[in-house]
Amino acid sequence: QVQLVESGGGLVQPGGSLRLSCATSESIFSIAVMGWYRQASGKQRELVATITPGGRANYADSVKGRFTFSRDNAKKTVYLQMNSLKPEDTAVYSCNLNARRLGAVYEYWGQGTQVTVSS
After folding, report:
1. Residue 68 in contact with residue 57, Cβ under 8 Å?
2. Can you give the pLDDT at residue 90?
């Protein structure tokens, strides 16, 4: 079973920064599109950002210019650097792996990590 292990969540004041990490031991990581999603209490899950195997990142408008998504294929790890955090960024953030190989689709989720932005 593929495991995605997230870390880096916590409590931060508005305007502060956090860096989330998501690591796996799976070789399929190198061909996977990775994503971060978040779900605030009482709201639907939303896409925060994605990154291609080659490192091209795309962002939701709400985080553009504040968040940076990167990957280290050698370490099989992705990072979400979150700056200028706002209370509305408070949510459970989950890592997603999506890959296709030999006609099969693979999709896995991490367990989620809580990010709370509050003074």
Report:
1. yes
2. 98
